[in-house]
Amino acid sequence: MCGGVEAKDKNRAYEPVRVYFPNPMAALPVVLEDGTDLGWVRWGRRKEQPGWGPQGGWAKYETIERGGWEKYHPQRAIALVSRFMEKDAERVSHWFDMNDGYGLECLVIGEAQERRVYVVTRAPPAAYEWLHDRWPAVTPVPGNDREM
User: Which letter, b or e, does each residue of 59-76 get, where b requires 16 or more Cβ atoms within 10 Å of its Cβ?
Assistant: First the structure.
């Protein structure tokens, strides 16, 4: 389901930063589908966090298609990550590299300080069904000439 990511932060001399969803300060570097750079956006909402929007950090593709996210007026976006992490049944972490020019498909809801990003998930590829029942959706980055 993508419990962590590795991304580059322009403010840290492009050294990779690991972000894990359980951290209440977790954020992802995000661009909208039209290429608008939103910078680092808070990743979802935890049970104990106040605010607007669903709890969790993921949006099931099937729920999006059924209209279950329409009430939040989401914008489609891409998280600019270089790797993502899934944990298996024994809680062992497995990291997966992203191909150049690709990111994680996301939904962004809210505005300004209330803005949050949710990673879109689908059924896993057959080769990874043993690992988890959900898998982050991967999509091309607008322009593909951005540094990832």
Answer: bbbeebeeeebeebebbe
Q: How many residues does the chain have?
A: 148
Candidates 109, 104, 127, 114; CA nearest to 3 is 104
Does some domain include residue 146? no
Cα separation, 2 vs 96, whole angstroms: 10
In tens digits, the chain (148 residues) has pLDDT values of 789 999 987 666 667 899 999 999 999 999 999 999 999 999 999 988 988 889 999 999 999 999 999 999 999 999 999 999 999 989 999 999 999 999 999 999 999 889 999 999 999 999 999 999 999 999 999 876 544 3
**Residues of the domain holding 29:** 4-140
Q: CATH code at 11?
A: 3.90.1680.10
Residues forming beta bridges with residue 31, ordered by sequence position: 37, 78
Q: State the pTM of this model.
A: 0.92
Residues 69/107, Cβ–Cβ less than 8 Å: yes
